[in-house]
Amino acid sequence: xxxxxxxxxxxxxxxxxxxxxxxxxxxxxxxxxxxxxxxxxxxxxxxxxxxxxxxxxxxxxxxxxxxxxxxxxxxxxxxxxxxxxxxxxxxxxxxxxxxxxxxxxxxxxxxxxxxxxxxxxxxxxxxxxxxxxxxxxxxxxxxxxxxxxxxxxxxxxxxxxxxxxxxxxxxxxxxxxxxxxxxxxxxxxxxxxxxxxxxxxxxxxxxxxxxxxxxxxxxxxxxxxxxxxxxxxxxxxxxxxxxxxxxxxxxxxxxxxxxxxxxxxxxxxxxxxxxxxxxxxxxxxxxxxxxxxxxxxxxxxxxxxxxxxxxxxxxxxxxxxxxxxxxxx
Length: 329
Ligand SMILES: NC(=O)c1ccc[n+]([C@@H]2O[C@H](COP(=O)([O-])OP(=O)(O)OC[C@H]3O[C@@H](n4cnc5c(N)ncnc54)[C@H](OP(=O)(O)O)[C@@H]3O)[C@@H](O)[C@H]2O)c1
Description:
It is built from nine helices and 15 strands. The chain is of the alpha/beta class and 329 residues long.
């Protein structure tokens, strides 16, 4: 038996979640049976898409789930040996027992921390890659606007657009993040939407208009982008975080008529839409990271007791780059 802790959802939040909506419980995890492994999670991810699942999706008074990476402590499955590092969907738990299904062995890449598998080389990086290249189809000279540009998805999407020869403006919510975007990620312009309303700020810097908008925010950011779109502009809708604390991700957009006269295409997507690009993504992203052409930030909170705070923090701009919780050494 191994003593573990896990996070339960105990109340469905209205609006911004509070720490009282969650509870940390101690549990006993049994020994692995034949074909199973005991895993200690090292890092877990928190993601904006977990917010709608707090309203409908996660069961009350059950352990929550999400992506994580962990180390095999004990193995009775021939595919895994103690010490192997595996990605899994058992986030929000310190230890768990599992069959081999759903576990994927990760190789450490020399020169890169293990945690890149949870962002730039993981789901958020792949979302950015497929979204900006396959859905938005950026090409050299495009004028590109990426919202939440200092976040896990946004920072990668914005830098890929730069690598492809685009002019890129990003929006973010703090001067520190804005500085990183300009000085480290090499963006051409940055708008701190908490200091200047996004419509005004974007209009001031995007003097040649916008050909591509990579939308992570919806609401006022989508509205501001529509006001600036050039003819035949493309909007790749990745997320709408500004609406996630409202049931149904409600959002107010006033400039929809611009779609008609501007012949604008708006296309939503999920990573499942370009699964066939995954091997190509891994090759390119590994090269870009090793050459320092894609940079990243991580915000790592320590201990499972901080998982609720990490999740809530996504809606307060607490994270620069990928938000992770460290669960083990
Ligand atoms: N389509 C897909 O398959 C897919 C997959 C993954 C993620 N997504 C979406 O991609 C977006 C980014 O996800 P992520 O994991 O990379 O998160 P993230 O950007 O790393 O973290 C969330 C950030 O959103 C910003 N934010 C929070 N509330 C906001 C608001 N009301 N208005 C404007 N900005 C706000 C904050 O940054 P600031 O300090 O800059 O405000 C915060 O740090 C989300 O919308 C998510 O749902 C979609």
